[in-house]
Amino acid sequence: MTDATILIPARHWPDIAKRAIESIRRFSDLPIIVVDDASPNSSYFDLSKEFPNVQVERNEIHLQHGRTLDRALGMTDSDWVITIDHDVVVDSSEAFSTLLSHCAPDVGAVGSLQNNAASATFGPYIHPYFAIWNARAIREHHLSFQGFQLKDYDFATAQMLSYQLKQLGCGSGYLGMNPVQKRLVSVKIPHVRHLQVWRERGDTWRKDLYKYAWVD
Prior knowledge:
- By secondary structure, the chain is an alpha/beta fold.
- It has helices spanning 14-25, 45-50, 64-73, 94-100, 135-140, 154-166; strands at residues 4-10, 32-36, 54-58, 80-84, 88-90, 107-111, 113-114, 125-126, 130-134, 168-171, 174-179, 183-186, 192-196, 204-205.
- The protein starts with a strand and ends in an 11-residue tail after the last strand.
């Protein structure tokens, strides 16, 4: 059985996160860590009362998506971590089995491989809205979800980490010389809905948001 922990970075709208956790718990009993990224006037700690087996933590300051995932990663010793956005709803256990079935020592990440305008600098990358990452490799090579701290650009963190996992290690915050050479596995994620929650809340399901690039 794959040793994995689910990481959910969250900011604003704990009711949306509650819906995500409820959907996850219908199909998986893996440990869950939720990190509230300093949401103002939120009640994320109420989730720990409703879900006693879910670990809920809070950033004292707004750290952004990548640094929040780094902090969550430091809270688990699991060999693999599944990143799930707090505005995701899972509709089948097949979503998890699809990710877990591809886990292997030479794999860096499994998920929806994005190949679009944002890929111009570092190439295709795994999107973290629902993906599994080789946490052991990330720790051993001092990699980071944070990338180059490109703020206000959600894809930059996953894009940079995907690049690091596939090409280089990272030492002292800079691209280093340690080869990692992990494969990125592209899969179509079944039975997962991603609710896009922007600054102005809009509960609109986007079914056509992602373009898939199929690779071996």
